[in-house]
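Incident log, support desk, overnight shift.

02:14 A customer reports that sequence design results differ from what the structure should imply. Their input is reproduced verbatim below. On-call engineer (initials T.W.) acknowledged and began investigating.
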């Protein structure tokens, strides 16, 4: 059995009129991992997810779920996939329990009341099980969408911007549920604008922009490879401008001249810090404090998307 549950091979999408929504993508998703797909609006995240879920037909390429072709064996593959879409769309006049149970039976599962009850309790929906969807708040409707996606016990779960516009309580409950699902062996792919969540939750990260998959890497390796560090020196006397003698280090003035910032690559054998500090001493620029900080995943994301423009 392969370690990859999902394989995306040369998948692209071009709409009538020649608009390219997705350039050829090659991507393998490992069993049981949490994979975060990051990208701005219109980057191609939803298009890629919709193709894998059978909602959008690709222009080229193929998708394999556990070795099965998602187009040739659509019904078998779709039973193994759950999708939480961005849009809050469901039957407004059905009860919570009825709509979630229907979703389970739609995929050939029996009306397993014990599983449904556990699922609704996990999402704090059990007390609302008899309520009509139309009477629920936006956050509760989002919980129902998650329950519907999980009702048939999928092996592969897509969360398309699940945290957008929801309250803090739901976000916290949802990520607890994601951890429990991963412990059960569910493979999870999420798109999110909340980059701190991807930084905290994901095993691997992909960055997509303008329909192109720019980079895929383990989160830790990505941070190490691309993450820069900043050395901030709190000066005894403020500077009006960076002295020309410091030009080779390209420092910047921050905080109204009270902070001198030097950005360096921590992975390099020579960071330039000793020579930078020595030159400061020679110039008589004194500092009373210093601290270093590493760039966040958000900084890396912004840099990558900016470079792709």
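02:41 Re-run completed on a clean worker. Output:
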């Amino acid at each position: 059995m392969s370690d990859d549950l999902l394989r995306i091979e040369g998948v692209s999408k071009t709409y009538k009129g020649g608009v390219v929504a997705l350039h050829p993508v090659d991507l393998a998703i490992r069993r049981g991992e949490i994979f975060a797909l990051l990208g701005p609006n219109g980057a191609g995240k939803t298009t890629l997810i919709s193709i894998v879920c059978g909602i959008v037909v690709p222009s080229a390429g193929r998708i394999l779920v556990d070795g099965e072709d998602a187009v040739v064996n659509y019904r078998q593959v779709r039973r193994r996939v759950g999708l939480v879409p961005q849009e809050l769309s469901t039957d407004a006049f059905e009860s919570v329990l009825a709509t979630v149970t229907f979703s389970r039976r739609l995929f050939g599962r029996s009306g397993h009341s014990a599983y449904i009850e556990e699922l609704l309790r996990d999402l704090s929906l059990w007390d609302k099980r008899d309520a009509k969807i139309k009477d629920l708040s936006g956050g509760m409707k989002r919980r129902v969408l998650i329950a519907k996606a999980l009702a048939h016990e999928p092996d592969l779960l897509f969360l398309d911007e699940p945290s957008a516009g929801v309250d803090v309580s739901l976000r916290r409950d949802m990520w607890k549920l994601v951890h429990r699902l991963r412990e059960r062996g569910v493979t999870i792919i999420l798109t999110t604008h909340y980059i701190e969540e991807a930084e905290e939750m994901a095993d691997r990260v992909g960055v997509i922009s303008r329909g192109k998959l720019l980079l895929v890497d383990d989160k830790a390796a990505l941070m190490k490879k691309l993450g820069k560090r900043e050395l901030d020196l709190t000066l005894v006397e403020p500077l009006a401008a960076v002295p020309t003698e410091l030009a080779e280090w390209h420092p910047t003035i921050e905080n109204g001249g009270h902070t001198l910032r030097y950005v360096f690559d921590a992975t390099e054998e020579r960071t330039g810090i000793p020579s930078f500090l020595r030159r400061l001493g020679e110039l008589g620029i004194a500092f009373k404090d210093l601290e270093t900080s590493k760039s966040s995943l958000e900084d890396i994301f912004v840099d990558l998307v900016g470079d792709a423009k």
